[in-house]
Design a protein that fits this description.
Layout (H helix, E strand, L loop, with lengths): L6 E11 L7 E8 L4 E3 L2 E3 L6 H13 L1 E15 L5 E14 L9 E5 L1 H7 L3 H15 L2
Parallel strand pairs: 1-6
Antiparallel strand pairs: 1-2, 1-4, 2-3, 2-7, 5-6
Helix pairs in contact: 2-3
Length: 140
């Protein structure tokens, strides 16, 4: 949180090519038991942490995967569950090596095709990030 009471956070829309089948695009969603929701990996920035560094750290902490950042995606602005204004910076990120281990913050991950990911996401603002990722990846 900054001095104005603004909660600063960052995350990624994590993607990969399916390891089986047609090699289609898959997006990683995380389930947070505290909120019983499905979202993109994200989290609050540590004091003095740059947003991209925080986004990459959160992806690793929540999914167990390293990642390679790509295009900057739209920033989300909203009021968090405690009534504070929150700003979340997002990037597209291709998944690298890693293995998910369930924890208190994230107990499940799913790799889904974009349409299924859009449907599973809890918040409409997160669905818009799927479209932004597709536009960034497949822009002519």
């Amino acid at each position: 949180m900054n001095r104005d009471g603004l909660v600063l956070a960052a995350g990624c829309v994590l993607w990969r090519r399916s390891p089986w089948g047609d090699g289609g695009l898959e997006i990683c969603l995380v389930h947070r038991p505290k909120y019983d929701d499905w979202s993109h990996p994200k989290g609050k920035l540590k004091r003095g942490e740059e947003p991209l560094a925080g986004a990459l750290r959160e992806v690793l902490e929540e999914t167990g995967h390293t990642c390679v950042p790509g295009a900057r995606l739209p920033t989300a602005h909203y009021i968090d569950v405690q009534g504070r204004p929150k700003v979340v910076d997002y990037w597209a990120a291709e998944a690298g090596e890693g293995r998910f281990v369930p924890g208190d913050e994230v107990d499940r991950v799913l790799w889904l095709a974009p349409a299924a990911a859009r449907h599973r996401l809890t918040e409409p603002r997160d669905r818009q990030l799927v479209d932004a990722l597709l536009n960034a990846l497949f822009r002519a």
